[in-house]
Amino acid sequence: MGIVLQDALLKNLGIEGLSLEWLLASATDAMLIVDQGGHILLANPALERLFGYGAGEMLGLALEALVPARFHGAHVGQRDDYFGQPRARAMGVGAELFGRHRDGREFGVEVSLSPLRTSQGLALVLATVRDVTERKLAQQALQESEARMRAIFETAVDAIITIDEQGVLERLNPAAERLFGYAEAEVAGRNVSMLMPQPHRQLHDGYLAHYRDTGEKRIIGKGREVEGLRKDGSVFPMELSVVEMQLGARRMFTGMVRDISERKRAEQHNRRLMQEISSANEELTNFAYVVSHDLKAPLRGIGSLADWLATDYAEQFNDEGKEHMRLLINRVHRMSSLIDGILQYSRVGRVREAQSAVDLNQLLVDVVDLLAPPPRFRITVAPALPTVQIEPTRIQQVFHNLISNAIKYMDKPDGVIEIGCEDDGSHWRFSVRDNGPGIETRHFERIFQLFQTLASRDRVESTGVGLALAKKIVEMYQGRIWLESQMGQGCTFWFTLPKSGAHLSRTGNPA
């Protein structure tokens, strides 16, 4: 039947000499011809592949076999309506159409109809079917993307403004409306320079023209600080970054705007504080030197007078008088040491100091020699201490204060002090361990505070500056200092220093 019909159609359609089968087979779109009863008379290979049928299997098949069952009733009515008023048109305009694959799965289709009529008056329809699954997926992805972008645009904390290449405003998000005080409808179609105070307003159009002519970018793709103008006339500092977009033939610009008024106020406040701190430091420095000069002069006089009295009138003092003179002389010396300690403490971190490579092996020899510990002390220094980049006097002060404290507070007949070093990754970790009386945990923080001592100053000569000075120096070099201790078993002071290019020394020197 199909071959006879093909030949008749060829003659009636005026394309005799060509094979209709060849014409359909050569078409890339899926195509079929049905009669008024809804039977498939011809189906090309593209259609057979689309619906999962073999060659020739669709001939004589009811058209409803290609439609999901739930649409059969409506489809028959639509087919009858079409044959009542046949014309070339798209099927199901405004509605989603679905095809049914041979395996039962459904997919979206788009159908175009064209009426045919043979010379015998037989009414036929040529249908072209396109699978729109990928297009629908792309449309869905596009809609989801647009929904996400719309959500970002509407809910963004920063103000977002879009303009065309002439500088005409198109969109303002809610954050931009709140920031500038305008509703989007108020500014749409107006030049974006209305949101800028002078001189930015005057320069803006020139910048856009320059960019259009030369392509030279001054703001696009960069962030910069400018000023914005609100509807109420107030000017505020803002951070602006601009991105260029190409939408077809149109060139658009999106500006991200952030109000930085708070940040500017904070920066101004910080500058004011830094100026106050600088002034205070300068006043402190002057005060420290004035106090040093004004206090040390009379102290030296008191010390000299006390030494003279203690020497020349020694025989005239009874035991109580001699003890009073000893306390007087010791306290004068302590006061002088305290003034020196305060001066040292005040200089740390304020005076720019040159760093150099310091071999700690040699430095510890010098520190121990300078302290001249009594014979009952055994001080050992770990070999192969590193060489560190630091101001020599500062690291000497740290070790001097830690070792001298261990000597001062030793309560054992045989004192043991051990200096060690460990590799702690990016830092060196140093330790000064002793077998002294130990320190209670509750005092661990207090002893690093200025002027704090745990023993009576008349029993142990101390200014209370040494550990505070050591802590300040260590922290100035981005290290930290702490201690571990058990009462009666001594304590260990730890501190770290960044390696900063330091290297291990090949030889060590015992102290």
UniProtKB/TrEMBL annotation:
Domain of life according to the entry: Bacteria
SUPFAM superfamilies per record: ATPase domain of HSP90 chaperone/DNA topoisomerase II/histidine kinase (SSF55874), Homodimeric domain of signal transducing histidine kinase (SSF47384), PYP-like sensor domain (PAS domain) (SSF55785)
EC numbers on record: 2.7.13.3
Swiss-Prot/TrEMBL keywords: Kinase, Membrane, Phosphoprotein, Transferase
Keyword DNA repair among record annotations: no
Cross-referenced NCBIfam families: sensory_box (TIGR00229)
Protein name per the record: histidine kinase
Organism: Duganella violaceipulchra
